[in-house]
Fold these 4 entries.
Entry 1:
Amino acid sequence: MTGTSGDPGAGPSPGPAPPASSPPGSSPPRSSPPRSGPTASGPTASGPTGSGPTGSGPTGSGPTGSGPTGSGPTGSGADQPDRSGGFWLVRHGETEWSRDRRHTGRTDLPLTPHGEAQARALPPLLGRLRPALVLVSPRQRARRTAELAGLVPCVVDEDVAEWDYGGYEGLTTAEIRRHRPGWTIWSGDPPGGETAAHVGARADRVLARVRAALPSGDVVVVAHGHFGRVLAARWLGLEPAGGRLFALEAAAPCLLDTEHDVPVVHRWSLPNPADTA
């Protein structure tokens, strides 16, 4: 959602980048010719971002320093590396709480009309997929996003659910900071909720399923803001709190990949056309 995933806001929290840990694994070798790539132009998405209730961050670029390329709705794909399958991460479309930057974990909210428009606008960004596996969070906001984007059939996976915010569910970061100055979710200690380590363990299990399916084709994970950022951090071999470095917009797809057997981010938070209409 947008708000963080929880979807509250999006900007990366200040602080040094976490030390790298051994990547959970590497993706399989790639041999098939490159596929069409996502669109290369267009303003950045508007609305709350996908990282935390507060803050904002740049979109459309990844840690590797390159943004989307191509010319048409699907791009030329000439700069995409060969791969057995692509690993796409998609955050669900907008909900009322994500729009208002409220932490949304277990609360099962529907998409707003704009969120549904965002989901319908996803196919051109994803290019010509040949999914071997689509994993979706059990929350209706993620399942509806997958349905409207044509990402079916899909497998509902509890490990793809958003961070459990415990007693901070439904609150904004500003409200929480009235009692805990300087708090962010990346400390991983919401009362009665999940720790960062627990969310990271779920992300590792999801990545194991992703890597097992990539030799057969593309894999798409339709998830949430905070969990999606943890998933990217673990793909790169960072600690779960490394997710604070990745702002993630609602319904803004990301392409995770490897380069010379090293996990990289190839596309990040591509602007959704519904946000610029």
Entry 2:
Amino acid sequence: MGYLDELKDEYKKGQEDANRFFDKSDKKEEVSGSTSEPAKTKLPIGKIVGAVVIGAIGAIFLGIAGFIIGAAVGFFGGGFIWDKITDSGPKLSTDGEDLFADTREWEAMEKQFKANEKAAKAGDVNAFFELAQAYYKGAGVKADDTQAYIWYHKAAEKGHAEGIYYVGMIYANGLLGARKDTKKGFKWYNDAAEKGSINALYSIALAYENGVGVEKDETKALEFFRKGAEKENADAQFALSLIYLRGSLGVAQDDAIAMEWLQKAADNGHEEAIDALKG
């Protein structure tokens, strides 16, 4: 059971779910289609094109000397211009199949974004939420925190459970330009839970456990961790495994129960739980 003991040191209090949902690095990966593999070397396309074109022009007027001078100017100038051109939109690989794959992925996201725009105009509440996600992540459209903020609120105002939950995270963590207000965030979390958001149950549990936006209450924290875990929220299940492992929040220490919740969290894809079981 040694690896279970190690989990005690890994448990970090606070609203880590907000960081997972609003991780800027995650949204960049979704747009680029990047993986954990080492970055591939990209061809200096702009520099090559610039060197050839400007060099050819120089050769017309000054011969070989003109070509050399023009190629040098084009090489460095072309690279600068190319970097500016490719600085927005999806970051595409120049490696054959990867280039086309990334392009197709971006085109698919653009198509989905336009479909959601059309649906939103027709009053589709789910489309409100999807537009918010797209604007925040830069999926199929240029990332825009202001538009993300607007569409999350529109979805929330129409009673969309996850829209309400995300608005709660916005205020609880001071995201998308909003002033941090943990009490306001907690209120939105409760509203989201009442609408059926399972993620909100976990955030409410964390708030009670740490006294963030509400008075600290270990009994309430345990109650909401259980509610989330029973609804198959992997974070809540992992938290319960640690609670039983440590014997905290008023429960008796029990390795067997801790293992049960750890396995359930792993079955639901919780990475830390999966790593722990591998140990």
Entry 3:
Amino acid sequence: MPSQARQLTRGFTLVELMIVLAAAGILLATSFTVISNAVPRMRLRHAAREVAGAVRDARLQAIRTNGDLIMPFDTSGGRYVTVSRTASGAVGRSSVDGVMRSVASLPADIRFVRPDGGSPTVTLVPPSDESLKAAKFNRKGQLESTNVPGYVYLGDAGRGNYMRLSVMINGNVKFQTWRDGSWH
């Protein structure tokens, strides 16, 4: 008889299984909410890194070719020009002075936009050229601007996430995020 009693007490009761399943469901729902909120921020960070990489490449090409280089931005279309070394047989790109140029686009939900909705969203050129949305690097790789950094503002479509790329005179790029009404 004692062996039968032990066999009857093995396993989990239905109540215990229901409690575990309820806890697992709560954890799953919570993690889904956290992940779904993080995805737009990660997409924005990735886009900002891509633009920063293109700015750095433009700077390096200006140094390599020992000449001035302009990297245009189409802020209304969410596009910018990337540069690289000339490669023979490249398709869909144009070459000027040994530098390949191609157009890159921001992801569908990312825009050149400021948190306050103001303009301009790209401020990388001297004040006399404000109609031009471009990064202009001289042959030394220096941003041709005033003594303040130039900026590229990016944001996601209506979710309130914003990033700013600060491009220093020497071409270095610093990332900042918009939180609580200021840049951090």
Entry 4:
Amino acid sequence: MLIDTTSKTLLAMIIAISTYLIGSINEVVFILFVFMSFDYTTGVAVAIKDKTFDINKGIWGIVRKIFYVKIIIIAFLTNYVLVWTVNTLGMEFSYAKVFGYMMVIFFIAQDGISMYNNWRKLGIKLPIAFLKVFENLANIFNQNRK
């Protein structure tokens, strides 16, 4: 079966993007996936405990986590375009994946705060310093937001 040039080009682009993104996955991205799953499950546990569980809210929580991943993919692809553009101009750019990791750390901070609050609602006592770490991370990214 012959594949036309457009299909080959599209397939090559998908493979190139996938390879770049897979190369961007490291321990920090893995930690985000752990945080996302723990945040979701603690949120569900709180809803069950409070007898407020709603399947639509549960599905929406999953959709939100899927959008986290999409935003991170866009951030890593933005890095790629930026580095490619700078290199094409003959300049150097040493922050190859800064936007992608910035989003990963931002979402880790958000989910860390959410998990802390969920654990407290479940009656689990934690040191306030645990919360402060995530709040400080979140504040780094929110300093100039209005």
